[in-house]
Amino acid sequence: MKKFLSVLFLSSALVLTGCGNEEAPEETPEDTAEDVQDDTTVETTEGLQDGSYRVEDLNFGETGWKEALEVTVADGEITEATWESKDEDGNDKIDDEDYQETMTNVDGLGPQDFIPDLEGQLVEKQDPADVEVVSGATHTSEKFQDYAQQLVDAAEEGNTETIEVDNAE
């Protein structure tokens, strides 16, 4: 009988000890979902954020063209780059056959040659600093690199507002 009472006493003590233990309440599915949601809002995205980014001249340059560059970012990478050079009538330099012929005769290449090259280099290399200057289109190449860097900076911040460059100076 003493054995029975000892076992009973010991069992009761363990049960009471377990009840007196202050453990954290068990998480419910709603609690877990809130924790996960809170965690995801704290995380930051590194690299380029998906979207379309554009930089454009505010004025027509000395040669009569207003230029712009637009890039598309998907899955954190530049997937498309489009360079525009428009005259006052809205005609794009790359579509101007007379301009293409004149430039080819003078420099050995025209916009139909170097613009797709610059666009392709940016998509391939992902870094404006790695885009090589096209001989015969040095000014456009350097401007392309500058505008591409501005767009990469905007894409890192996720700022999809058009960047306007006051090129009258």
Automatic annotation (TrEMBL):
<keyword id="KW-0732">Signal</keyword>
<feature type="compositionally biased region" description="Acidic residues">
    <location>
        <begin position="23"/>
        <end position="41"/>
    </location>
</feature>
<dbReference type="GO" id="GO:0016020">
    <property type="term" value="C:membrane"/>
</dbReference>
<dbReference type="GO" id="GO:0010181">
    <property type="term" value="F:FMN binding"/>
</dbReference>
<feature type="domain" description="FMN-binding">
    <location>
        <begin position="64"/>
        <end position="155"/>
    </location>
</feature>
<feature type="signal peptide">
    <location>
        <begin position="1"/>
        <end position="20"/>
    </location>
</feature>
<protein>
    <submittedName>
        <fullName>Major membrane immunogen, membrane-anchored lipoprotein</fullName>
    </submittedName>
</protein>
<dbReference type="InterPro" id="IPR018247">
    <property type="entry name" value="EF_Hand_1_Ca_BS"/>
</dbReference>
<dbReference type="InterPro" id="IPR007329">
    <property type="entry name" value="FMN-bd"/>
</dbReference>
<keyword id="KW-0449">Lipoprotein</keyword>
<feature type="region of interest" description="Disordered">
    <location>
        <begin position="20"/>
        <end position="50"/>
    </location>
</feature>
<dbReference type="Pfam" id="PF04205">
    <property type="entry name" value="FMN_bind"/>
</dbReference>
